[in-house]
Amino acid sequence: MLRSHLRASLALRINQRFFYGWAMLGVAALGMFASGPGQSHMFSVFILPIGEDLRISHTSVSSAYALATLVAAFGLPWVGRLVDRYGVRPIMLSVAVLLGFAAMAFGAVAGMVTLALGFAALRFLGQGSLMLCSANLVAQWFNRKRGFALSLMGLGFSLTMAAHPPLGQWLIDQLGWRAAWFWLGILTWLLLVPVLALLLESKPENLGLQPDGDVEGGGSQATRGQADVGLTIGQAVRTPAFWIIALSLATFSMLVTGLFFHQVSIFQSAGLGPQIAAWVFPISAVSMVLAMPVFGRLLDLLPTKPMFACAMLTMTAAMLALVLVHDAATAALYGIVFGINNAAVHTHIAYVWPRFFGRRYLGGIQGTAQTIAVVGASIGPLPLGIAFDAYGAYNVALVMLAGLPVLCSVAILLMREPELESVA
């Protein structure tokens, strides 16, 4: 109780200078950054040394990773329900501690079984639970400014894409891949645990505050900002809106994963070398960083459904731009469009759930939706791989798949919003 009182006193003193939600936004962005040990871009630099050390093929490592990712996703609804019941603070702290242990333990894997278990733990805790907690935290503290706040939180993910792979490679070069994971675990603790223990507060209402720093009952859309308003997961899944949104985001996950997985091969089939494919990634990352705050601000100003529909259409634009790639200039253009597409949809991923289903049971809803998205991502590489094996080219499949986001956009525009105000 004394620690809780001291933390609340510190938070309220900070709130006298600026709205404490901005501090929580910083905590959430740090959580997104610290999720790096559980992200695909971090594992990319470890795949070869792991395979060589364990004497297993690249295909075996990739298969263990894909299966572990899929299995780990089914634990996320449970994490979401824990967040709803106990708040973000205890769950996020527990996840941070366990992620550090999981990273250190990963350096001791000895075969396919322990490798798959290690992948599953890191994916479940880092890529899944930590990101879910971060998104939930921002959604609780912001309402009118939620889009802009979530876009700033997403910059933490962009930073981990830029920082963690080089850090992992440096640790491998200096210490070997096993010791690298030990220090990644220590770094996770140093980054997260002190900050979460000192600053993290689950909801503004716990401190007598309101989302966005509004006074009691103030602000537009006040009803949707209340912590006690929202559908249960059971009520949510019985609405068409839930499935339209969830399947749209799963479609995005499927297509983006497929493009990432096959990008080098697609460029080679267009007559371009792997070097060009490699430098398209930073072009996309820079475009994403620049575009995310813009989309976030627009979400706070414009109607959500048309914005979401347009965001899905940027996926279609990216796939058609990839079909047109034939030289360095068109490859760069694709990189820019793909970065804008990632910014547009990623800004919506955490925004749409509190917007349409309220905050009261947000964790369970986000966890279930994230599981559906991961299932989509797990099958993402298959359609393009099958097309290439059958026809020796990707373009026909890219054009056909580009129609899926169009269908999602139409469904989003026709979607009926759930009624929240009638929920007790």
Describe this structure in words.
- This protein has 2 domains: 2-202, Growth Hormone, Chain: A (Up-down Bundle); 233-414, MFS general substrate transporter like domains (Growth Hormone, Chain: A).
- It is 79% helix and 0% strand.
- It is built from 21 helices and no strands.
Would you report the number of β strands?
0
**Gyration radius, rounded:** 21 Å
Q: How many structural domains does the protein architecture include? A: 2
CATH topology of the largest domain: Growth Hormone, Chain: A
Q: Largest beta sheet, briefly?
A: none
Name a few traits of the molecule.
mainly alpha; Growth Hormone, Chain: A; 79% helix
Which secondary structure elements does this structure contain, and how are they paired or packed?
Blueprint: H1 2-17, H2 20-34, H3 40-43, H4 47-54, H5 58-73, H6 76-86, H7 88-106, H8 112-141, H9 146-175, H10 177-199, H11 222-225, H12 233-236, H13 240-269, H14 274-301, H15 304-323, H16 328-349, H17 352-357, H18 362-378, H19 381-391, H20 395-401, H21 403-414
Helix pairs in contact: 2-8, 2-9, 2-10, 4-5, 5-8, 5-18, 6-7, 6-8, 6-18, 7-8, 7-10, 8-9, 8-18, 9-10, 9-14, 9-16, 13-14, 13-15, 13-16, 13-18, 13-19, 13-21, 14-16, 15-16, 15-20, 15-21
